[in-house]
Fold this protein.
Amino acid sequence: MKRIVLVGATDGLGKALAEYYAGQGCWVTILGRNPAKLDALVADLRARFKTATVNGVPCDLLNAAEREPAYRKAIEVTGHCDVFFYVAGLLRPSDGATNRWEDDGPMVEVNFTAAVHLLGLAANDFRVARRGTIVGISSIAGDRGRKLNPAYGAAKAALTTFLEALRNRLAPFGVQVSTVKPGYLSTRMTAGKAGVFWSAPAEVAARTIAERVAKGHEVFYVYRRWALVGLVLKLVPRFLFKRVGPP
Ligand SMILES: NC(=O)c1ccc[n+]([C@@H]2O[C@H](COP(=O)([O-])OP(=O)(O)OC[C@H]3O[C@@H](n4cnc5c(N)ncnc54)[C@H](OP(=O)(O)O)[C@@H]3O)[C@@H](O)[C@H]2O)c1
């Protein structure tokens, strides 16, 4: 039975990934910050997918002291882990002009610092075991410095670089590291937001991500057309990006 650990998976894409892997009869362990929401999801998945084994481990990623014990518990529960996902993300609203540490601090913590903590622990274990797959959900928002939400974009850029470094470090040990830049997803994160297009339903994104990860893809977008957008964004000269770049 394939063993999957999903960090930050009580909503949106993470929840859809949990449903996908439970539907495949996998052993799914979910880390989530809200115990009631986590318990409800675990009970729902157990009821719907009888061949799967589903567990929940409470963990608020903003609390550094909770992270390593939650990781150890998740690995202890499953015995080992085949695919370790860091899906959690936090996007706080921004007025596009003011930097607010009350929002920027938690965004950096959830989107990057906690990812370094937990993916680092998984990377150490997978290197010793000489197997396993690590997946980080990053974002096209990290490809250029965009004015709307600098802290979110910068945290995702740092996550992308961290994942690339882990990939290069772990390749000799037979460990796969995949970076996903999903493009827009139809989840709570984009609900009611202007300028959202080519939005993928969470279930479609989850299935696509799981299939590409299984095929060994290292860096990918959910809809391939986002790769072209990513390329164009990277090629726009700095002076032009400053004037007409996207928010
Ligand atoms: N939506 C998009 O268009 C889009 C585009 C590019 C990249 N992404 C990335 O895709 C990933 C999934 O996003 P989504 O759209 O599914 O967002 P979402 O629906 O808001 O889900 C975010 C998940 O992260 C969890 N989380 C947030 N803070 C946490 C904390 N302190 N401790 C534990 N868990 C925490 C949430 O837990 P709760 O259920 O308790 O709230 C939730 O399960 C994120 O990394 C996001 O940055 C999304």
User: Anything to note?
Assistant: The chain has one domain: 3-244. DSSP finds eight helices and nine strands in the chain. Residues 8-14, 32-34, 37, 60-62, 87-90, 110, 137, 139, 182, 184-185, 187-190 surround NAP (CB under 6 Å). The first helix runs from residue 12 to 23.
